[in-house]
Here is the input.
Amino acid sequence: MLIHLQQLPEGYSERTSQLPIDSRLLEQGVFKKDVACRARIDRIQQQIHIRLTYQAEIEFECSRCLNFFSHCISDSFYLIVKQRQSLASQEENDDDFVELYYEADAEEIDISDAVRDEIITSLPMKPLCDESCAGIDSTRFAQKNRNSGEDVDPRWDALWKLRNRSEDTNSR
Ligand SMILES: [Zn+2]
Here is the structure.
C-alpha cells in the first residue's frame, strides 16, 4: 500500500486499497483474497497521521479439532509517518502507535509491511473453530489408553528418573 507524497493533500483525505498477501501472512492461515484496507489520513506538512482499518477473510486450522474453518478479521490501528530527522531529534516511541520514517527525498511511502505486522500480531495464537470445540474425535485415542491402563504423559518419565536419582544421592 503506497502513499504518494506529491499527491497527498494537506489536511484530511481517504484512501482504500487492497493489500497483497505475502508469504509471511500465508504462514498464519489461508487468506481467501487480498486484505481490504481503508486509510483515513491527516497530513500536517511533513507529518502524516493514518487511522488504518483492515478486513480479511482467513481460513484457519482449529488448534483443537484440526478442522479448517473460515473467520473474518477486522481491526484498525494508528500509524504516524514522519520525515526522518537526525537520529538525536527522534522522540521515543511510546508504543501506542506504529511509527514510520521516510527520507527527505522520498516520493512515496510503502506502509504494507506495517499493516502486515499489525495483522499478524492481531491473529489468534491458537485459533478455535468454536469456543466450545470438543477437540479431536476421542474414539481415535480410546484404544491406546485402554492398552496402557493408566493414562500417563510419557514426558513425565524423565522427571521421575531425575527425582529417583536425587533421592538415591541424598540417602547415601
Ligand atoms: Zn475445533
